[in-house]
C-alpha cells in the first residue's frame, strides 16, 4: 500500500533561483497510502533539496499540503496535486504555487501568507479563512464561510476569486482583502448572512444581493468604473487559469456587479459603550 | 534549545479534531459488504481518536427478515456479571417475546479491542398479552427496550430493527468492522458508519454510535448543547436516556417524529434545525405560519449546537446539518450509489468517479431513497433522491 516517492536526486542546498520555474523537471510523489505528515515531510525535503516543481498523484484527503514550506532563503516551488486535497490545503502558505486538479475540502488557504492556489474544481467550507496575502482561484463553487476573517496585512492584500457560487456567511468578520464571486452558473446569492461582522475589505458579487442577505453593517452598492477595472483584471486571471471555462471575459463582465463594504471599521465600537 | 519542552510537544502528533460520519446506499437495493465503508471511514482516522466506532447495516438478515433482530451488550465488569445480566435479560425476553433464534454475535478475537462486552443477538416477535394486545408491535417493542435499558443492570439493547443491525464498540471504526467481520459476514444495501471523538462523556461500548430504535439509526458529528431540554421533552413521551451521550436524543426524536407522528423528513428537519426567526419573517404567509407553528409546538426538540448527522432507515438515508452548518457534510452520487460523508476524499477513495458532489445547505436534508421506497412509486425514486424542501410548502 505504502508507495515510496520517486525522489530525483537533487544536490542538497542548491541555491534557489528567482523567477518562473516553468519548464523545470517535476519531481513526482505518489501519495497513495501516505499520511499527512509523511507527505508534508516529503515536500519539505524536496524544497530544501532545491526541487522547483512537484507533482503529487493520488492525493486523497491528506491535510495541510503546502504548509511548513517557509524557509528564510525563500525557496519556492510549484506543487501540482491530482486527486482530492484534504482539509487546510495551503495553510500558512508562504509564496508557493499550488494547483489542484480536482476538488478541495474545507479550510483551503487557512492563514495563507502569500503565493497562489488554483483549484480546478470546487472547494468546501471556510475557504480563505484568515488569509492575509496571496491569491486563490476556485473554478467552481465553494461552501459556507468563505473568506472568514480574511485580512490585509503589512501591505499585503489577499484576493479570492470563486467561479461558482458561495454559500452562507461569505466574508464573515472579514477585515481586509478582495473577494470576487463570479457565480457562473447563476445559482448563488441565495446565500444569507453575507459579510456578518465585516469591518474591512471588499466583496464583489456578480449580479445583485438583497439587503436581507447581508449583515447589518454591510453596505451594498453598484460596482463603479474603478471596481469593474479591478474585477476585470481578476476575471482575466481567472480565465487564464481555467481555459476550460465556457464563458468569455465579455460575457462575464456584461453583468452588473455589486460591491459589499462595511459601513464602519469598528462595527461593535458602541456595543459596550454606555 | 529546550529539549524537554520539545519532546513534550512532539507527543501531540494527533490532530485534535472531530468525529467522522459516512453513509452509502445502493438505491437499487443491491447488497454489498462492509469492506468499502470500512475503507472510507478508515481514511478519516484523524477525525476520531479510537474511543468509539460503529456501523448500521440494512438488509443483512434476509433469512430472518420478518423478525426483530435485537443486538444486546452485557457490560458487567466480570464474566459472571455479564452472564448474570444475560440470564436476567433472557428471563425478561421469555415473558415478553417469542424468541425464534439466538446466538452470540460472531467476533474475530484476534482483533484487539478494549473490554469487549458479551454480545448476543435474538431474533424475536413481540408477545402482546392482556391490555398490551391493543398496542402496535412497535410501541410495544420501544416500551420494552426502554425497560431493559433502564432497569436491567448491565444489559443494553443497541439494535432492534428488522433485517438490519448495529455493530459498535470502543476502538477505531475500521477495527470495530474487523472485530465484527463486517467485510466478510454481512451484505447490506445501506451502511452508515461513525468514528468517534468523545468530548463530554467517557467512552464506553454503549456510548459508541450508531444509536438506534427499531430500524431508525443515527450517527452524529457534533454536540447537542440543548441535550437537557431535548431529554426532558422526550422523557415525557416515554424515552429513557440511559446511554450517557447526546446523540441518543436525536435517535429518539427521529423515532417520535418520523415513526410515531409520521411527519415527513422535510418537516422533521425544520423541527430539529429550524430557520431563524429573521428568516421566518421573510417567508410568505403560508410558510411563515407553518414554520411558526413548528417552532411553537416543537421548541424543545430544537437541536442546538453544531451537528452533522446521518439518519438511517430501511430504504432511506438522510443527511442533515445544523441550520448554520457548523459541521461538514458532503453528498455525492455515482449511478445507483448515494454517499454522504464528513469529507469528500473518503468518498473518492472508494468511488473515484462521481456523477455529482455537493455541499448541502445547513438545515436542509439530503435524502437518499431506495427504489420503490414510497409505496412502490417509481416517481418518488426519480425525484426523491435529491428532494427539496420546497415541495411540501
Automatic annotation (TrEMBL), chain A:
Q: Where is this region: Disordered?
A: 1-22
According to the UniProt entry, where is the signal peptide?
Answer: none
What residue spans carry the Low complexity bias annotation?
13-22
| Ranges for domain Glutamate synthase alpha subunit C-terminal | 55-209
For this protein, the record's InterPro entries field holds: Glu_synth_asu_C, Glu_synth_asu_C_sf, Glu_synth_lsu_3
Q: Which domain of life is it from?
A: Archaea
Its protein name is Glutamate synthase alpha subunit C-terminal domain-containing protein
The lineage, from the top, is: Archaea, Methanobacteriati, Methanobacteriota, Stenosarchaea group, Methanomicrobia
Automatic annotation (TrEMBL), chain B:
Give the superkingdom in one word.
Archaea
Query: CDD domains, from UniProt?
Result: GlxB
InterPro entries the UniProt entry points to: GATase_2_dom, Glu_synth_lsu_1, Ntn_hydrolases_N
Identify the residues that the record assigns to the Glutamine amidotransferase type-2 domain, covering every copy: 19-371
Q: Which Pfam families match?
A: GATase_2
Positions of the UniProt region annotated as Disordered: 374-393
Protein name stated in the entry: Glutamine amidotransferase type-2 domain-containing protein
Amino acid at each position: 500500500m505504502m508507495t515510496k516517492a520517486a525522489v530525483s536526486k537533487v544536490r542538497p542546498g542548491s541555491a534557489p533561483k528567482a523567477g518562473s520555474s516553468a519548464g523545470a523537471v517535476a519531481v513526482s510523489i505518489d501519495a497513495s497510502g501516505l499520511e499527512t505528515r509523511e507527505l508534508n515531510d516529503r515536500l519539505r525535503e524536496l524544497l530544501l533539496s532545491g526541487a522547483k516543481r512537484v507533482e503529487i498523484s493520488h492525493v486523497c484527503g491528506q491535510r495541510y499540503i503546502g504548509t511548513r514550506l517557509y524557509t528564510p532563503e525563500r525557496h519556492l516551488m510549484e506543487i501540482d496535486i491530482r486527486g482530492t486535497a484534504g482539509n487546510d490545503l495551503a495553510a500558512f502558505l508562504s509564496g508557493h504555487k499550488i494547483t489542484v486538479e480536482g476538488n478541495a475540502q474545507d479550510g483551503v488557504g487557512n492563514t495563507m501568507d502569500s503565493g497562489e492556489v488554483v483549484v480546478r474544481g470546487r472547494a468546501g467550507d471556510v475557504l480563505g479563512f484568515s488569509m492575509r496575502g496571496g491569491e486563490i482561484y476556485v473554478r467552481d463553487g465553494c461552501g459556507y464561510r468563505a473568506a472568514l476573517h480574511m485580512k490585509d496585512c503589512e501591505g499585503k492584500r489577499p484576493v479570492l476569486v470563486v467561479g461558482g457560487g458561495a454559500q452562507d456567511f461569505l466574508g464573515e468578520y472579514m477585515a481586509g482583502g478582495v473577494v470576487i464571486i463570479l457565480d457562473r452558473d447563476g445559482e448563488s446569492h441565495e446565500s444569507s448572512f453575507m459579510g456578518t461582522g465585516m469591518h474591512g475589505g471588499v466583496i464583489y458579487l456578480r449580479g445583485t444581493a438583497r439587503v436581507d442577505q447581508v449583515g447589518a453593517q454591510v453596505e451594498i452598492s453598484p460596482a463603479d468604473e474603478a471596481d469593474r477595472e479591478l474585477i476585470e483584471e481578476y476575471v482575466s486571471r481567472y480565465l487564464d487559469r481555467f481555459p476550460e471555462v465556457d464563458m468569455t471575459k465579455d460575457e462575464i463582465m456584461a453583468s452588473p456587479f455589486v460591491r459589499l463594504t462595511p459601513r464602519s471599521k469598528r462595527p461593535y465600537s458602541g456595543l459596550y459603550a454606555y | 534549545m529546550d529539549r524537554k519542552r520539545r519532546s513534550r510537544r512532539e507527543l501531540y502528533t494527533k490532530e485534535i479534531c472531530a468525529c467522522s460520519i459516512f453513509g452509502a446506499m445502493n438505491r437499487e437495493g443491491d447488497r454489498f459488504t462492509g469492506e468499502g465503508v470500512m475503507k472510507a471511514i478508515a481514511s478519516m482516522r484523524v477525525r476520531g481518536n479510537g474511543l468509539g466506532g460503529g456501523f448500521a447495516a440494512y438488509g443483512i438478515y434476509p433469512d430472518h427478515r420478518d423478525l426483530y433482530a435485537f443486538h444486546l451488550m452485557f457490560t458487567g465488569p466480570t464474566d459472571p456479571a455479564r452472564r448474570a445480566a444475560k440470564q436476567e435479560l433472557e428471563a425478561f425476553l421469555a415473558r415478553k417475546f417469542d424468541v425464534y433464534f439466538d446466538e452470540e454475535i460472531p467476533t474475530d478475537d484476534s482483533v484487539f479491542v478494549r473490554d469487549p462486552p458479551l454480545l448476543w443477538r435474538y431474533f424475536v416477535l413481540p408477545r402482546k398479552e392482556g391490555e398490551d394486545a391493543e398496542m402496535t408491535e412497535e410501541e410495544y417493542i420501544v416500551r420494552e427496550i426502554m425497560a431493559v435499558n433502564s432497569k436491567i443492570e448491565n444489559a443494553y439493547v443497541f439494535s432492534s430493527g428488522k433485517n438490519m443491525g448495529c455493530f459498535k464498540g470502543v476502538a477505531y471504526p475500521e477495527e470495530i468492522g474487523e472485530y465484527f467481520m463486517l467485510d466478510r459476514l454481512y451484505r447490506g444495501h445501506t451502511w452508515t458508519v461513525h468514528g468517534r471523538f468523545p468530548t463530554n462523556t467517557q467512552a464506553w461500548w454503549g456510548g459508541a454510535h450508531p444509536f438506534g430504535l427499531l430500524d431508525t439509526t443515527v450517527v452524529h458529528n457534533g454536540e447537542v448543547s440543548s441535550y437537557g431540554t431535548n431529554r426532558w421533552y422526550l422523557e415525557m413521551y416515554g424515552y429513557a436516556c440511559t446511554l450517557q451521550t447526546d446523540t441518543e436524543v436525536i435517535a429518539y426524536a427521529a423515532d417520535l417524529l418520523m415513526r410515531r407522528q409520521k411527519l415527513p423528513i422535510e418537516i422533521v428537519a425544520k423541527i430539529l434545525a429550524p430557520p431563524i426567526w429573521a428568516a421566518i419573517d421573510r417567508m410568505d404567509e403560508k410558510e411563515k405560519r407553518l414554520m411558526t407553528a413548528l417552532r411553537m409546538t416543537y421548541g424543545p426538540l430544537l437541536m442546538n449546537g453544531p451537528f452533522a448527522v446521518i439518519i438511517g432507515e430501511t430504504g432511506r438515508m438522510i443527511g442533515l446539518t445544523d441550520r448554520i452548518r457548523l459541521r461538514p457534510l458532503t453528498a455525492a452520487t455515482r449511478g445507483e450509489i448515494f454517499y454522504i460523508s464528513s469529507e469528500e476524499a473518503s468518498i473518492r477513495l472508494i468511488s473515484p468517479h462521481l456523477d455529482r458532489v455537493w455541499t448541502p445547505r445547513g438545515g436542509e436534508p439530503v435524502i437518499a431513497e431506495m427504489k420503490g421506497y414510497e409505496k412502490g412509486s417509481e416517481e418518488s425514486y426519480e425525484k426523491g433522491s435529491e428532494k427539496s424542501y420546497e415541495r411540501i410548502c
